[in-house]
Amino acid sequence: MLSRDRLSRLGLALGIALLAGACLRPLYGDTSPAPGNQNVRDRLSAIEVQEATNRIDQQIRNDLIFAFTGGAAAPEPLYRLRVETNDALQSAVVDPFTSRPTTETYALDATFRLDRIGSTDGKPVFQGRAFGRASYDRSRQRFATIRARRDAEDRAADVVAQQITTQIAAHLATNP
User: Fold this and answer.
1) Across the strands, what pairs with 80?
2) R_g of the chain computed on alpha carbons
3) 159 CB contacts (<8 Å, ≥6 apart)?
4) pTM for the structure as a whole
5) What does the pLDDT look like over 109-145, one tens digit per residue?
6) So where are the chain's domains?
C-alpha cells in the first residue's frame, strides 16, 4: 500500500507531466485552425533555395529542397533562402615520423537568410548560422584519401542542411 507521502508525490508528478504535455505540439503538425492559413509543412515547401556555386553548396541545396518539399513539386515560392558557406580543414593527428596528417576534420560553416519574395523593406524573415564537422582518416593511397574527404564533406553538408531546416521550421512554427 502506498503511503500518503508517496501518493502525494505521485499525484504531483502526474500533474506536472499533464501540464507539460499540454504545452508541447508537433513541429510539422497542422496548427492553423483558420481556413486559408498555412501550416509549417506548407510554408516550408514554399521556400525557394538559391542556386549553388560549387559541389558542397549543391549538396546543401539538394538536401534543403528535399527536406522542404519531401520530393513533391514545390508550390509558388513565398520565400527565398540564401546560404553562404565557408569551409576549412583541420589536422587533428600528425604522424611524428613523416609530419603528415593522419586524421583531418572537415569544417563547414554556413550563414543563411530567409527573405519574403516581394518584400520591399529589406529585412529578413529569419537569419541564422549552422555548422557541420566531419573527421576522416588520410591514407597513403591518394584516391582513398580523396574519397574519404568527399564523404566527410557530404556528411558535414547533411548536418548543415538539417540544422537550417530545423531552425527555419521552428521559426515558422512560432511566427505565423
Assistant:
1) 48, 115
2) 23
3) 108, 130, 131, 132, 133, 134
4) 0.77
5) 999 999 998 887 888 999 999 999 999 988 888 899 9
6) 40-174
- Cα separation, 98 vs 100, in Å, equals 5
Q: Is 56 helix (H, G, I), strand (E, B) or coil?
A: helix
**Residue with grid cell 521550421, as numbered in its chain:** 169
State the virtual CA torsion across 13, 19, 22, 27 in degrees, nearest 10. -70
Q: H or E element: which one contains 131?
A: strand 126-137
Task: Write the CATH number of the domain with boundaries 40-174.
Answer: 3.30.160.150
Type of residue at 122: G
DSSP 9: H
Let me know: does 112 contact 131? Beta carbons within 8 Å: no
3-class state of residue 176 by DSSP = coil
